[in-house]
From TrEMBL:
Binds 1 zinc ion per subunit. This is M48 family metallopeptidase. Its cofactor is Zn(2+). PANTHER family: CAAX PRENYL PROTEASE 1 (PTHR10120). Pfam families: Peptidase_M48, Peptidase_M48_N. Residues 246-438 form the Peptidase M48 domain.
């Protein structure tokens, strides 16, 4: 997962108070590319050490895998849409059925202190919402097993779900309780305070994820322990790009214990920043392509995508919180008496704000993904420029890398344009490979967009 995608998830997690364990970054390995749901990938066969396009397209698949990719893409799109709508429907039911109000009354009857009532209310709510999301997640895991990329047993998978729920409880309950207190104490301007508090929470979640959360779900070891030659090559790229990723911050993740997918990414911020390579990637991709991927991820830092994304996110969240507050208040005015919700400041009423934020998050999905695709494209350009002079053929290396990734995760070579616009956080593999194939700014003594040499 690229750092930009990690940041988007962190923002979503913060906004939605981590009410769902599936929102916790750092769970089971997931697809690094553009699909909305990291369900599955190629059948059990290993990808070759070098992938050439099978047609005139920059990225293509043989007939058997193409059929799998098309079928899998339908599953991913269906689960993406169904999962979002199901989450909204569950929240609506909690409010419209009076379940949220009855839960609030139940905790008030049995517990004396208000803050303890709040802890119990939000803890029960998180467990319920996490359980409600399990069917969609389970279908995704079943598809992942069927298509051959996941090797994670159901017992291990449920274990990860339990860990995710625990993380959601530890982090989400205090945040929800604090946000609810702010709404109650400042009923007119609470949305401003929530907006102000969101930025440090987002940054904090990105900082702690690789240190605390990720190790709960996967095993890590120093990359240099088993791949010293690769580390030396990555250090050469670090020197070329001026990034600050010393060897002690390069790690190998034991993804093969759960997945047959391939991936590499940079995560964290500040002193927690690190480069992570899946062991499946080192086993099946040439070092040249790994260096290209590292160059791509380094580009996110060199091109200041993190502060840019933070600035854009905070600007957008200002209007999201404002609009969601207006919508929540309108919902209470229209349905409050019927649903027995006395106001947004009550615990049950606070769920209307969460419902409004969820609607906003769904509607604005393509906006965030549009920005993400732009940054990912810039990182692709930077990565290809960064390996110039370090590999024999930057164009061929980049194209082969995208073909490896596309074949491993069964990316559809010709995705629906609207689906790509709405759901893809990265450009489609076809578009990425096509650009890489044609991008050669060094012809006739030229220079790159970001690097002179």
């Amino acid at each position: 997962m690229a750092i930009v995608q990690r940041l988007m998830i962190a923002g979503t997690v913060t906004i939605l108070f981590m009410f769902s364990s599936g929102s916790v970054a750092g769970q089971a390995p997931s697809a690094p590319q553009s699909q909305p749901i990291p369900v599955s990938s190629s059948a059990s066969s290993r990808i070759s050490s070098r992938v050439e396009p099978h047609s005139e397209q920059a990225y293509s698949l043989p007939p058997d895998k193409l059929a799998q990719a098309v079928a899998l893409n339908k599953i991913r799109v269906t689960l993406d849409i169904a999962g979002s709508l199901w989450s909204l429907l569950v929240l609506f039911w909690l409010l419209a059925s009076g379940t949220a109000t009855r839960l609030d009354a139940w905790t008030a009857e049995r517990l004396k202190r208000r803050w303890v009532q709040g802890l119990a209310f939000f803890a029960i709510l998180i467990v319920f919402l996490s359980a409600a999301g399990l069917p969609v997640d389970a279908i995704g895991h079943a598809a992942s097993l069927r298509y051959g990329i996941s090797v994670q047993s159901w017992a291990s998978w449920f274990g990860d779900q339990g860990k995710g729920m625990a993380v959601s409880l530890v982090m989400g309950v205090p945040i929800a309780l604090f946000f609810n207190w702010i709404v109650r104490k400042s009923p007119l301007r609470y949305w401003v305070w929530l907006w102000v508090i969101s930025l440090p929470l987002i940054v904090l979640s990105v900082f702690v994820a690789p240190l605390i959360i990720d190790p709960l779900f996967n095993k890590f070891e120093p990359l240099g322990k088993t791949h010293p030659v690769l580390v030396t090559r990555l250090e050469a790229l670090v020197a070329r790009t001026g990034t600050s990723v010393p060897p002690e911050r390069m790690f190998l993740m034991k993804a093969s214990e759960k997945s047959n997918g391939i991936n590499a990414y940079v995560t964290g911020i500040g002193s927690s920043k690190r480069f992570v390579m899946w062991d499946t990637t080192t086993d099946r991709m040439p070092d040249d392509e790994i260096v290209f991927i590292f160059g791509h991820e380094s580009g996110h830092y060199v091109l200041n995508h993190i502060p840019k994304m933070l600035a854009g996110m905070m600007g957008g969240l200002f209007f999201v919180f404002w609009g969601s507050a207006k919508l929540a208040q309108a919902i209470v005015r229209r349905f409050g008496e019927r649903w027995k919700v006395v106001g947004v400041g009550s615990r049950a009423g606070f769920l209307t704000l969460f419902f409004a934020l969820s609607i906003a998050g769904f509607v604005l999905t393509p906006v965030g993904n549009t920005f993400s695709r732009h940054f990912e494209h810039e990182a692709d350009v930077y990565g290809q420029e960064a390996i110039h002079g370090l590999v024999a053929d930057p164009q061929k290396t980049a194209v082969s890398s995208f073909n490896h990734l596309g074949e491993a995760w069964l990316d559809d070579p010709n995705p629906n344009a609207f689906v790509e616009f709405w759901s893809y956080s990265h450009p489609s593999v076809q578009n990425r490979a096509k650009f890489a194939e044609q991008y050669n700014p060094w012809v006739n003594g030229g220079h790159g967009k970001f690097l002179e040499k």
